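Researcher: Checking consistency across runs. Here is Glycine amidinotransferase, mitochondrial again:
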Amino acid sequence: MLRVRCLRGGSRGAEAAHLIGALVGRALSGRLSRASRSSSSSAAAQLPLSAHEQVPEPTAEECPVCAHNEWDPLEEVIVGRAENACVPPFTVEVKANTYEKYWPFYQQYGGQTFPKEHVQKAVAEIEEMCNILQHEGVTVRRPEPVDWSLEYRTPDFSSTGMYAAMPRDILMVVGNEIIEAPMAWRARFFEYRAYRPLIKEYFRRGARWTTAPKPTMADQLYDQDYPIRTVEDRHKLAAQGKFVTTEFEPCFDAADFIRAGTDIFVQRSQVTNYMGIEWMRRHLSPTYKIHIISFKDPNPMHIDATFNIIGPGLVLSNPDRPCRQIEMFKKAGWTVVTPPTPLIPDNHPLWMSSKWLSMNVLMLDEKRVMVDANESTIQKMFESLGIKTVKVSIRHANSLGGGFHCWTTDVRRRGTLQSYFL
């Protein structure tokens, strides 16, 4: 039987301390203001913000950002944009994360926009997805449109951009904190700029905002001689713990982490290194525990099409990429569900992902799931679990590298911090 432990006051440790600190800060601020009413205007001029710009300290109920897991009732979400999406240059880290049959595509179109007609269809699909989310009672927010074709240069590399299609890759909400991930692809170095207006708004309304150490993305971060030839090579390398990213500096994509209350699960992948995982462990302890899990996966990148937690003690586990630690979950009383084989046809382009985007679903709450309208077999699987399916077709959007979970970051879910993994 699954054991659940509710933590009083919501998020214990870090968030409780934050709230107590806020109350103490207010009291101290009041005393100081009374003591300094006669102070000079020159001292006031040294304040970093004017009176109308002061950032408020919210109560837990007022904070616009709060999510503890992947299944509590969804109230607000960021949905990405396909507009202006560009093919990333064919660098070593891109090669390691893509399938060989698409390498000629990257070699030909790297630095250019994705096929225009395909992107237009993806844009229309995501707009419809947003409309359906709003119909389901969810507030939808979007990143800013950006011209990703512009070339940029740092002291260590030059590149063009990619897109702001997958907010799950760059933003992770833990409690009332937004964490910006230090992603590993050079083409995504400035992706955060599309989200900054939203993040600043949430911050001004009381959310906590953390940017993980920005990687230099110097050559030392990548194994320039990473030996990629066949899928068998990839299996061997992954089994040996060898990846295209080194331990030169911390890097991670937020989509390699998945939340279950006080327990957060992560994989070491082509874009997430152990330094990045350790940074998250130190940053989130002691309230949260980070568990490293691994899979029989020749191309590990993002956990949510391999291991997707859809409810308290309920997880979808990809049969093609079995979890090496699955007994750990069974012993904790979890139910492990094997999703059916995807139905997406072989001739549909998936430039950055596999067909298993069928299991990359978005839970609207414990009893509602957003699922691909074309994937009838997984719809039946959810219905057998007593979960209502909200069907949307995003096949052309899938081609850009993500399913519903990838295309979103949940900003606010109604619930409390609990332990599901005792």
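Researcher: Does this match what you'd expect to see?
Model: One thing to look at in this run: Residues 8-48 have pLDDT under 50 and may be disordered.
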